[in-house]
Design brief:
The complex is a heterodimer of chains A (320) and B (218). Chain A is built from 4 helices and 20 strands. With 320 residues, chain A is α+β, with helices and mostly antiparallel strands. The longest helix of chain A has 23 residues. Chain B contains 5 helices and 12 strands. The chains are: A alpha+beta (320), B alpha+beta (218).
């Protein structure tokens, strides 16, 4: 099928980029995964428009874009409530909608969460780089020319379904995540938790942290209790691999939660956010409060199974 | 590390022997790669195994690592390739060359001689795409990082940080002492592979003039 022009960016919002579930397998070359920070929201958005859950969509932050449909298309908006509008009229999130040719999808002031995801039936087609369509903003590749979207960009779809189907799909309302202003993040200790004295570990769990405004897609910087490492050890460690969710403690003692744009690092990691809570990291916004709760590997596994069941069950319900 | 990766530590120092073990385990894991393993990130002294916890358990990962570790197959590791890297030292391309020379009471030419003498090992690729961590720099020119990192180090810049030397493959912030610049393109997202170096490669620097660099074809 030939590429069909489906979307025109009228205004890009603060930071809108093309993301899929990430670029894995290239860590040996220093290439970080990138990808949707709230992968749960992108997967559900894709399923709502009858895509595979791993197809590329748009990730919009805080103030969303304005987009014109260049042909009739099916879209779904999930994730943070940035108040999606169709021709200025509010539309429901977590369900599919039809945009007629020349309809405009826009966003109003954010109500909750930080990032919204827009999936389009047929997916967004840009050339995959190292197996992924995700935009690596810091190194400038992937997505559309390796950058955030800007005014007048035209997006295409390779498998644009014609004619557009009229059935609408909705995600189970009981499973729609709630995005608070005060978060509880579950972590597993380590790998360098033994480099911190007991008092530091206790204050890491008892403190309330705030997300700092100098956070970005590379990491969530935290303001709050300073974490001291043991006194008789070197300032940094020998560089090693890191993953998103790693909570690293740099020299100033202010924790940074690594997101998906970093592949190695030389700071100590006191703990790691569990997989089930990773999607939340995409929805915490500057000024939000958070506490950390240490859990066991078994608890982490049960939490992930519960989250994945929502995706699997929803996917299965669409086929029946 | 967390519920979806395992950090396999094979030593606690920067040494060729430890790094060789990491490379062997990495190579073994890579050739027996299951779909449940998302990525492998080898570094100086450890291998990070990132997996899909819904597809494989930690015990299964540990068992497969032990299996590979207990059945070493030296022939798996290819002979390391030696990569020659031309460098324009000093001047606008190497703003910290004089500073490194002064720090050690050397002439800039002596710093160049010391930097081009060893054959370096690529211990790991990290920090930015394609960034090689090379070692070890001779003590005569080992120099601490800059106190204040630069916000922009141009791609191709060759730097020193203590006993490490490296090359910036993309424009990025950086705190290493910049002594030169290479016209060789080190990272190409569309390349197969995308990085000019792989872990375990050997690297030799040699000095060229700015005139020669301008005619360099990669």
């Amino acid at each position: 099928m030939a590429d069909v022009e489906i979307l025109e960016i009228l205004s890009p919002g603060i930071l809108t980029s093309i993301q899929d579930l990430g670029r894995y397998g290239y860590g040996r070359y220093g290439v970080a995964p990138s990808g949707a920070l709230d992968s749960f929201a992108l997967r559900i958005a894709n399923l709502l428009v009858a895509n595979r859950s791993d197809q590329a969509g748009l990730e919009a932050m805080l103030l969303g874009p304005a987009i014109r449909a260049l042909t009739d298309i099916v879209v779904a908006v999930t994730g943070g409530n940035l108040q999606p509008r169709r021709n200025k009229q509010p539309i429901a999130m977590w369900r599919s909608h039809i945009l007629k040719k020349d309809d405009i999808l826009s966003f109003d002031l954010p109500l909750s969460g930080f990032r919204a995801y827009v999936a389009v039936a047929g997916g967004i087609n840009v050339a995959p780089v190292m197996g992924s369509r995700s935009t690596n903003l810091s190194s400038g590749f992937g997505g559309l020319q390796g950058r955030a979207l800007k005014k007048n960009d035209i997006l295409t779809s390779e498998n644009h379904p014609q004619p557009v189907k009229t059935d609408t799909r909705a995600f189970n309302s009981a499973w729609i995540p709630v995005y608070p202003n005060n978060w509880s993040l579950r972590v597993i200790w380590g790998p360098q938790d033994d480099h911190f004295p007991d008092e530091s570990r206790e204050s890491f769990l008892s403190a309330t942290y705030k997300m700092s405004s100098d956070s970005d897609r590379t990491g969530i910087r935290l303001e709050g209790a300073v974490i001291q490492q043991k006194p008789d050890i070197q300032a940094s460690i020998i560089s090693e691999g890191v993953i998103s969710g790693s909570v690293q403690i740099p020299g100033d003692g202010k924790p940074i939660i690594i997101l998906g744009e970093t592949v190695t690092g030389g700071y100590r990691k006191i703990a790691t956010v569990i997989s089930a809570d990773l999607p939340l990291l995409g929805q915490i916004k500057p000024g939000d409060a958070m506490q950390f709760k240490a859990v066991s590997l078994d608890e982490a596994r049960r939490a992930l199974t519960a989250l994945e069941e929502k995706v699997y069950k929803f996917e299965a319900s669409l086929k029946s | 590390m967390g519920d979806r990766s395992l950090l396999v530590e094979l030593g606690d120092e920067i040494s060729p022997a430890v790094n060789q073990r990491v490379q062997e385990l990495f190579s073994g894991m890579d050739s027996h790669r299951s779909e449940a393993i998302l990525d492998l990130v080898p570094s100086y002294r450890s291998l990070l195994v990132i997996y899909t916890p819904m597809c494989i358990s930690l015990d299964e990962i540990k068992a497969s690592i032990k299996d590979i570790w207990n059945n070493p197959n030296q022939s798996r590791l290819p002979q390391p390739q030696t990569v020659k890297i031309p460098v324009v030292y000093g001047g606008e391309h190497g703003p910290d060359l004089n500073l490194v020379a002064q720090y050690h009471n050397l002439t800039p030419q002596e710093v160049i001689d010391f930097h081009t003498r060893p054959t370096y090992r690529v211990y790991m690729i990290g920090f930015t795409p394609g960034y090689p961590y090379l070692g070890e720099v001779l003590d005569a020119i080992a120099t601490p990082r800059r106190e204040t990192p630069r916000t922009l180090v141009p791609k191709g810049s060759v730097g020193i940080a203590q006993k490490q030397t490296g090359i910036y493959p993309v424009d990025s912030p950086g705190g290493w002492q910049i002594i030169g610049w290479t016209p060789v393109k080190l990272f190409d997202p569309l390349g197969k592979p995308p990085s000019h170096f792989v872990m375990g490669d050997r690297v030799q620097f040699h000095s060229i003039t700015a005139q020669e660099a301008s005619q360099w074809q990669t």
